Amino acid sequence: MTAVAGFAAVDVGAFAYAGGWLRPDTLTPAHFADRFEKVYGRHDGFRRNHAKGLSATGTFASTGAGAALCRAAVFQPGTIPLVGRFSLGGGLPDQPDKPDTVRGLGLLFQAKGQQWRTAMINLPVFTDSTPQGFYDRLLASKPVPSTGKPDPQRMAAFLDRHPETVAAMKLIKQAPPAAGFADSAFHGLNAFWFTNSAGARVPVRWSVVPQQRPQGTPHPEAPPSGKDYLFDDLIRAVAQGPLTWRLLLTVGEPGDPTDDATKPWPPSRRSVDAGAITISAVQTEQGGNARDINFDPLVLPDGIAASDDPLLTARSAVYARSFTRRAEEPKSPSEVQVSEVLK
User: Fold this and answer.
1) What is the C-alpha to C-alpha distance for residues 260 and 189, in angstroms, rounded to an integer?
2) Which parts of this chain are annotated as the region Disordered (predicted)?
3) pLDDT in tens, 263-298
4) Whose CA is closest to 83, among 248, 295, 238?
């Protein structure tokens, strides 16, 4: 955990105000944070989205193959430390685990003074192509107290205005979630530009693919039970031994969209195995670990640059606003307690 001290959360996203989407007459980071609070309620000290989580530490062992695409130090051959966070989508820090809730994995790599932060989810594409679309869908998805589900008329009206979301949801339904965190693949979804030491630049998307069990293979155990069963299973799995994912870099070709996370690239695109991500320990969220890290997607090392995807600037700015709010609030204990699971 000594390495964690150097991974202090940075409010880098505040610089994203230069982005065109943050005009005074449209959306602002505060509006986004307020909407999360309107939908999920206010929970002091927790993230406005992906509030329920578990910290992790481990290593990244680079194969060196990624260096052909990117000059960032993280892709040079060797092993470096990383800090991670597993999470569930939504702003409820004590929500019960459900198999269809979006799962997240945030990672922070540090190599030779450079940081790379990424926040991934277990969906093959994102549901929205613009910040405004995400903002509107958030409200349309708010559960109605009488049913616990979104208002069907409000959601239907939203989908009528957003055919890109309809198309993305069809793709998502074709990729059912894995049984747990350990056998989930996580995807960066947004495109970035990679530049190598020779100055060659290519668009890249990345994913981390589990090595524990083939995706979709059912657990042999009894059906899941318990409010925190996804996190409990992860805690027990790490206690039995390290978990590993491969970091795959997918290289785009001319014509592949770099500005729309709802559209997948063709499966025939070249993929580079950049190395192994190993999670060797998990920790209850508290001061000094991933609880206080802002997984801002625009904290990038030399050699990686943002694409023209409008979601990137928005995510950076909203993450920063969420971080600023929770940093000033009293902290409550995490729902997920490692010691309780391992008794």
Assistant:
1) 9
2) 324-343
3) 999 999 999 999 999 999 999 999 989 999 999 999
4) 295
**Active-site pick, 50, 162, 187, 219:** 50
For range 47-53, the mean pLDDT: 97
Query: From the CB of residue 301, how many other CB atoms can be counted at a distance below 10 Å?
Result: 20
Q: What is the C-alpha separation between 16 and 321, in angstroms, rounded?
A: 11
Partners of 192 in the beta sheet?
204, 306
User: What's phi and psi for 248, nearest 5 deg?
Assistant: -110, 130
Contacts of 6 (CB under 8 A, 6+ apart): 110
**Which residue's entry shows tokens 């982005």?**
19
Q: What single-letter amino acid sits at 143? A: P
Query: Is residue 330 within 8 Å of 44, Cβ to Cβ?
Result: yes
CA-CA distance, 206 to 187, in Å (whole number)?
6
Q: Give the amino acid at 178.
A: A
Decide: pTM greater than 0.85: yes
To 10 degrees, what angle do helices 29-40 and 310-327 make? 70
For the chain, the maximum distance between any two Cα atoms, rounded to a whole number of angstroms, is: 60
Cα distances from 58 to residues 68, 163, 214, in angstroms, run 25, 40, 22
Tokens describing residue 213? 């069990």
Assign residue 288 a region (left: φ > 0; alpha: ψ between -120 and 50; beta: otherwise). left
Closest listed residue to residue 290, CA positions, set 83, 141, 19, 91:
83
Phi then psi for 298, rounded to 5 degrees?
A: -105, 10
pLDDT number for residue 343: 80
Distances (CA, A) of 36 to 30, 33, 174: 10, 5, 28
Q: What is the pLDDT of residues 160-206, one digit of tens each?
A: 999 999 999 999 999 999 999 999 999 999 999 999 999 999 999 99
Radius of gyration of the chain (CA): 19
Rounded CA separation 330/44 (Å): 6
Q: Which amino acid is at 299?
A: V
- 50 catalytic residue (yes or no): yes
CA angle 8, 9, 15 (to 5 degrees): 130
Q: Is 17 a known ligand-binding residue?
A: no
What's the pLDDT score for residue 212? 84
